[in-house]
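step=encode ok
step=design start
structure_in=
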C-alpha cells in the first residue's frame, strides 16, 4: 500500500488529507485504530528519536510526543524506589523498555497527557501494561509481542492507535514539504550524534564522565526532533525538562529549567507523602501535585477545596523548603540546539543543577558564556553543529 486516507489534516476543516509514497509502499502498518495527521507526525518524529537514542547508547529507548515535540525521552536504565513512586510504577514489574517509557512519560506528566508514544524495541507486556493505564493517543514500535498486542488492542474500546514501523526503512536523502503552495527541498538531517561531537571542551573544567557524555547525547538527540528554539535538561538517562518552540533562547532555558525543577520537587518527602482521596483519576492527581508545588496551593487552602483531592490537608510546601531542596539537585546535563548568545542562560541552568553543557558555539559572546561556565566550574563542549528542527 502506497497511500492512506486520513480523516482530516491538522484541523477538521483541512480536507482532503492523506499520506502517500511517491515510490514504493508505506513503511508502516496500522494494526489498530485510525491515526490522524498530527498522530503520524508525532509517530514518525518519535520513531526517529528513539531509534537514534538506541544507536547512540545501546539501550532501549522511549519518547512521549505531543504536537511534534517530545514531552519526555529516556533510555531504559533501572529506576530508583523514589522514581518508581513519582512515576506511579512502584507496584509493577518493569522491563528495560518499560523503564524507558516510565521515565519518558513521568518526566513531565502534565505535557504527556494524551501523548503519542514511540518505542525503539518490540513492545513487551510490561510496557503495554504501563501504556494501558495512561491517557494516550497511540504507539509506534518495530513490533509487538502477542500479549502486548492483546493489551493494546483492548485500549479505548479497540480504537487505540497501534502502528508497526518497518525498522529497516531508509528514507530518501532529499526531503520536501510545501508552505503556501511553495515547495521546499533540503537534504535530510542525517547527522550522527556520538561522543566524538563532545570532544571540543572549551572550559577550564575538561572532565566529561561517561555518564555525562551519555546524558549530553540524549539531550542533543532529543533536540534534533524538538521544534526550535529548544533546550533540554537531562539527568540519569532521561530528559527532565524540555523547552520547545520559543523565540528567545533564555525563555527556552527558563521553561525547560522550570520543568526540571518541578521534576525534582516531586521527589521531596512532602510531595511523596501526599495522601489522595480514593478513586482520584490519574490526571487529577497529577494536576493536584502541580498545584501543591505552586503558589496556587495557597488559594486551594483559602477556598477549602483541598478536600476534593486529599484525604488529609497537606502542609504548605514553603518557598524556603523548595529552594533548599532544589539546591540538592546536581549532575544535570544541558543541551541547546543553537549557541547561547548570553551568559544568562548559564546562570539559569546553574539554578537547576547543571554541571555539563553541549552547544554549537559560534556566538560573538562565546567568551562571556565560557567565563560564566568557568564561574560555576561547569564543563562545556562546543559541538559546532546546529540542530534546528522546523
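sequence_out=
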Amino acid at each position: 500500500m502506497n497511500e492512506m486516507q486520513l480523516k482530516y489534516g491538522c484541523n477538521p476543516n483541512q480536507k482532503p488529507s492523506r499520506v502517500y509514497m511517491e515510490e514504493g509502499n508505506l513503511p508502516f502498518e496500522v494494526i489498530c485504530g485510525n491515526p490522524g495527521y498530527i498522530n503520524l507526525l508525532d509517530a514518525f518524529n518519535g520513531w526517529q528519536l528513539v531509534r537514534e537514542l538506541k544507536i547512540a547508547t545501546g539501550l532501549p529507548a522511549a519518547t512521549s510526543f505531543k504536537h511534534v515535540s517530545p514531552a519526555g525521552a529516556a533510555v531504559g536504565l533501572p529506576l530508583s524506589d523514589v522514581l518508581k513512586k513519582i512515576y506511579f510504577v512502584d507496584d509493577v514489574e518493569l522491563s528495560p523498555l518499560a523503564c524507558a517509557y516510565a521515565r519518558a512519560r513521568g518526566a513531565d506528566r502534565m505535557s504527556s497527557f494524551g501523548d503519542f508514544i514511540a518505542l525503539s524495541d518490540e513492545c513487551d507486556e510490561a510496557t503495554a501494561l504501563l501504556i494501558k493505564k495512561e491517557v494516550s493517543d497511540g504507539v509506534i514500535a518495530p513490533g509487538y509481542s502477542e500479549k502486548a498486542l492483546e493489551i493494546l488492542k483492548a485500549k479505548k474500546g479497540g480504537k487505540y492507535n497501534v502502528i508497526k514501523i518497518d525498522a529497516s526503512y531508509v528514507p530518501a536523502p532529499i526531503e520536501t514539504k510545501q508552505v503556501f503552495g511553495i515547495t521546499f527541498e533540503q537534504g535530510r538531517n542525517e547527522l550522527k550524534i556520538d561522543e566524538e561531537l563532545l570532544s571540543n571542551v572549551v572550559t577550564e573544567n575538561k572532565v566529561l564522565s561517561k555518564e555525562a557524555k551519555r546524558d549530553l547525547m540524549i539531550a542533543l538527540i532529543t533536540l534534533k526532533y524538538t521544534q526550535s528554539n529548544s533546550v533540554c535538561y537531562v539527568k540519569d538517562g532521561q530528559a527532565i525538562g524540555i523547552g520547545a518552540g520559543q523565540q528567545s533562547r533564555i525563555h527556552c532555558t527558563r521553561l525547560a529549567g522550570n520543568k526540571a525543577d518541578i521534576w525534582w520537587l516531586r521527589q521531596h518527602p512532602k510531595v511523596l507523602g501526599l495522601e489522595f482521596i480514593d478513586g482520584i483519576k490519574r490526571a487529577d492527581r497529577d494536576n493536584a501535585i502541580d498545584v501543591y508545588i505552586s503558589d496556587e496551593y495557597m488559594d486551594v487552602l483559602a477556598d477549602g477545596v483541598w478536600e476534593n483531592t486529599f484525604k488529609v490537608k497537606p502542609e504548605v510546601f514553603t518557598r524556603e523548603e523548595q529552594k533548599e531542596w532544589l539546591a540538592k539537585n546536581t549532575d544535570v546535563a544541558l543541551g541547546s540546539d543553537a549557541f547561547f548568545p548570553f551568559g544568562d542562560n548559564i546562570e539559569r541552568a546553574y539554578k537547576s543543577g547543571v554541571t555539563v553543557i553541549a552547544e554549537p558555539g559560534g556566538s560573538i559572546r562565546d567568551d562571556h558564556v565560557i567565563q560564566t561556565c568557568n564561574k560555576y566550574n561547569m564543563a562545556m563542549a562546543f559541538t559546532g553543529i546546529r540542530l534546528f528542527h522546523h
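step=design ok
step=annotate ok -> The first helix runs from residue 37 to 57.
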